[in-house]
Amino acid sequence: MNTTRKPRSLMLNRKFVRFETNVDDPAVPFGVGVIRLDRPKVNALNRAMQTELVAACHEADQSRAVKVVVVYGGQRAFAAGADVKEFATRTQGDMIREGDAISKTISAVAAIKKPVIAAVERLALGGGFEIAIAADFRVSSSNALWGLPEILLGVLPAAGGTQRLPRIVGASRAKMLMFTGESITGSAAAEIGLVDQVCDEGQALNAAFAMANRFVNRAPLALAAVKSAVDLSFDTALDVGLRAESFLSQSMYATDDARAGIESFVRNGPGTANFVGE
Predict the structure, then answer these.
(1) Where do runs of H (alpha helix) occur along the chain?
(2) Residue where a domain terminates, one of 212, 234, 251
(3) What is the pLDDT of residue 6?
(4) Sorting pLDDT into bands at 50, 70 and 90, what band is 12?
């Protein structure tokens, strides 16, 4: 009898996007989940891949075993954007009918209620760039290329680029990248605050795992509350944000994690609690 466990991505009929934990790959640290983009050669985002990415984001968000999520495209490329061959024949009517599908796809990354780290090698262009800026943090190899080249095709970034990028690097730097369509290296991206950590080529995933390990033992509900409050701060007035922050803070005191954290702090000092997400 063959008891070999099939990869979960195959059981879920996913071809281009896999969600993996330590159960699937022992190299993945406990408590970390990896959304792996895998559509040769450079992870161009066709419709099927977009659908699978949304499903993988939902799976990552729902997994109680996963505390931190890493999005990774492999050594060849993080993602080189939309599949130009697929949309080359689309008309305005097609785009109107399809609506904002790719924007909703990438927003699924931002909607994960856990810390999300993008681990970037080689290329993060167009939609791939926009996936990375939908994450909470970005780790990049020093020579990876980052860019939003849509202007060179006569269109514009339409999956969060015009909205998320200025919030990370400021309006003028964001406009410079989008107006020119030029690419910058991971090292240059770090200088403007786009990338949070630079590493050697081939080490982005390991660097992302090291970053994830800094969060993995923190209280999951509190992490989700912090992420929600910070993200809300970009979309609302200060007084509304402060009320939301107060409400979220009050709600934490009804959790088992808060009781465990406070009791552990009193008895043994900070950083000794075992949080379970309840």
Answers:
(1) 8-11, 47-62, 84-87, 92-98, 101-110, 127-134, 161-169, 171-180, 186-191, 204-212, 220-233, 238-252, 256-268
(2) 212
(3) 47
(4) low
Catalytic residue among 110, 126, 150, 204: 150
128, two tokens: 């791939």
Considering the domain architecture, whether residues 168 and 96 belong to the same structural domain is answered as: yes
**Residue 278 counted as domain residue:** no
Please return the burial class of 146, using the count of CB atoms within 10 Å of its CB with bins 0-12, 13-18 and 19+. Answer: buried
Average pLDDT, the chain: 90
Q: Are residues 155 and 226 in the same domain?
A: no
Q: Residue 86 sits in which domain range?
A: 8-212
Task: Check whether 277 has a pLDDT greater than 70.
Answer: yes
Give me the sheet containing 197-199, strands edge to edge. Answer: 17-20, 32-37, 68-72, 116-120, 137-141, 197-199
Is-catalytic flag, 130? Answer: yes
Residue 120, both tokens: 């970037």
Which of 60, 79, 82, 132 is labelled catalytic? 82
Residues 263 and 157 in one domain: no
**Is 182 designated active site?**
no
pLDDT, tens digit, for every residue of 120-132? 999 999 999 999 9
Among 20, 130, 160, 174, which one carries the catalytic annotation? 130
Residue 127 annotated in active site: yes
- Residue 121 is among the residues annotated as catalytic for this protein: no
Q: Are 20 and 34 in contact (CB under 8 A)?
A: yes
pLDDT confidence tier of residue 84, bands split at 50, 70 and 90 = confident
Which listed residue (74, 81, 126, 127) is catalytic? Answer: 127
CATH code of residue 229: 1.10.12
Q: Are residues 257 and 143 in the same domain?
A: no
Q: What does the pLDDT read at residue 2?
A: 41
Phi, psi of 148 (to 5 degrees): -120, 85
